[in-house]
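ugh finaly. both done.
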Amino acid sequence: MDKILGTNMEHPLSDNPRRAFLKAAGKGIAVAGALFAAAQPETKPALAQARQEKLRRLASNCWSVRQLFKQRPFRPPAQMSEEQRKRWEKGQQEREQWRKKYGELTLLDFPQFTKATYPGVTKMDLFSGFFGDIEDDSQFVVQEIRGQKRPGDFDPSQPSSKRYLDRLAKQIALTGVKAQHISNNAPRFLADLDDGQRKAGVQVAKNWLDAAKQISCVSMRCNTGGPRIIPAAEIDPRLGYPENKQIVPYLKKAVESFKELADYGEKVGVKVTIENHWGLAADPMNIRIIIREVGSPYCVASPDFCNWEHEYMLYHGLEALAPLASSMVHAKRWTRFPNVDIARCVKIMNQAKYTGCFSSEYEEEGDGVLGSRQIMEEVLAAL
C-alpha cells in the first residue's frame, strides 16, 4: 500500500487477490500518480481549492485502461484473415506490456486504482463489459461470440451477481470513489421492430438499473440500437420530394422503450442516458427527438466528444446535445479524431450551463493511463 499511496495506511481490500494486484501494480501506479501530481503547478491556497473543486467534476474511465482488465482466455476463430490475426496478436502483446507496467485489474480493483492513479478524482465511469467475476459463469448469460459459445454479458439479476455487486459497493464505500455512471452495452434492441426482442432488451436494461442503484450510480447509458447505418430518405415518386418513411418506426419504438426506462429509472433513482453511440444515436437529432418525446428528467443525453461519423459533427453535434446533458459527458480523444479540441468541447458544455461530470476516455493507441491523465488536464484547464 505504501508504494501506491505513499502512506502507512492499512490496505482496505482484505482478500488476497486484491493484495496481489496492488503489489504487482504498485510500481506502475505510483509512477502514474506521481506524474499526475507532479504536473500540478504550485498554486496559492485559493487556486488549489478551485482546482480541487474542478477535480470533483472528473471521472476515471474503464475503457481508457481496457488493456489492464482481466479477461477470459480466448482462442481466435480459424476463419480470421491474416490481417485480423495480426491485429489480434498486436492487441495481446500490448495488453502484456501495459499489465507489466500497471498490473492487472478487475472492476473490484478499479475504485482503489482510480484513487491511486488520478489523485483528487472521486468518481468513476464503469463499463458494463468489465462487471462480474469471470471465474463464476453463473453471473453471465450464455452467448455466441465470434462463432464460439461462451459466457457473455454480466446478468445482474442472478443471486451470485447481486453478491458480486455487494462486494463492489463495499470497495466503493471503502475508497470513497463513487460510481457516477455505467457506460452500458448490455441492453440491446431498444429500437427493434420485433416487439418481443425490444421488450427483452427493456427488461435487461431494467435489471441493470437495479444494479446501478445497488452501487449508487447517478446514471446509466442505454444504446438505442436500430439500424447500424441510419436509413436514408427516398424520393416519393408521386411528388418528387424526399421522404424517410423507414426511420419513423424505429424512432417510435425507441421512444416507447425509453419512456418505460425513464419511468423505471425514476422509481430506482437512476437516470437513463443516450450517448451518440451509433445506431439511431449516430445522429444527434434522433437523440433530441427521443429525449424530447420521452419528456422526463430521467432520460437525458450523455454526449461523447468524438463518436461522430464526420468532422463537422465534432462541435456542432455536441452543441445539439449539450443542453440535454446533466450527469455524464465523455471527454474523449480517439484515433478517428486525434486532434479534437478538448477545450472547445468543454467550452460548449460550459455555455450550455452543464454542471455534471466529465469522464476522461482515451481511445487512441498507447498508454491509456497517461492519455487519460492528459485529457483530464485539458478539461481542468477549460472548466
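ok and the 2nd:
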Amino acid sequence: MQYNHAISGVAAATRSSAKTSSTSSAKATSDEVLLGLVAKGDKDAMRVLFARHNLRVFRFLIRMVGNEATAEDLLNEVFVHVWRTADRFEARSQVSTWILGIARYKALTALRSRTFDELDEEAAEAIEDTADDPEVAVQKAERSALLQSCLSQLSSAHRQVVDLVYYHEQSIEEVAQIIGVPQNTVKTRVFHARKRIAELMAAQGVQRSWL
C-alpha cells in the first residue's frame, strides 16, 4: 500500500536526519495544524509529527506489550493509521491524546493474539536513563528494575493508567478519553494501582516516593 511506503519513508528520514529545512521551519507549528496538513497528504508535516511524538508513543507501546520488536512494528502501524485517518480528527482532545489512543488500540489488538504478562529486561533497558555517573546509574537501574517488576504485577488496566499519568503526564480527563472510561474510573484505578505498588515496594524494603 502507498500509505505504508509513505510512512516507512517518513520514519527512515526522521531517524536518519532531523535537519531537513522543512522540519526546521515547522518546529513551532502546532500539532493541529500539522495534522491538517497531513490530511492533505503533506509528507513533510507527517515527518514533523512523527519526529515530535514517536519516542513517547514507542515508550508507551513497549510498556504495554513488553517487547521492543513488537513495539517497533506497532509504532509504524500507529503512524500509518494517523496518515490514513488524519482527516477524521475532530479536535475533541489534543492530538497527542488521540495518537496515544490509537497506540493503545493497536497494542491491545496485538495482546489479544499473544500473551505478554511481564515487561522483559530488554524493555526495561530501552527506557533506562544512563546519563549519570556509574554509581548513580547503577542505583537508578536497580530502582528501575524493581519498579518495572512491580508494574508488571499490576493488571493491564492498572498498568495503563499508571503509564499514562506518570510516564506520559496525561491528565485524568485525557486518560479517560484514551482508554474510553469515566474519569472516576480512572481515579479509582490510579488509587488502587498506587496502593498495590506501595505494597509491592514495601515488601522489598523500599518506601514509595515516586507516586
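summary for the 2nd one i guess: The chain has two domains: 1-119, 128-211.
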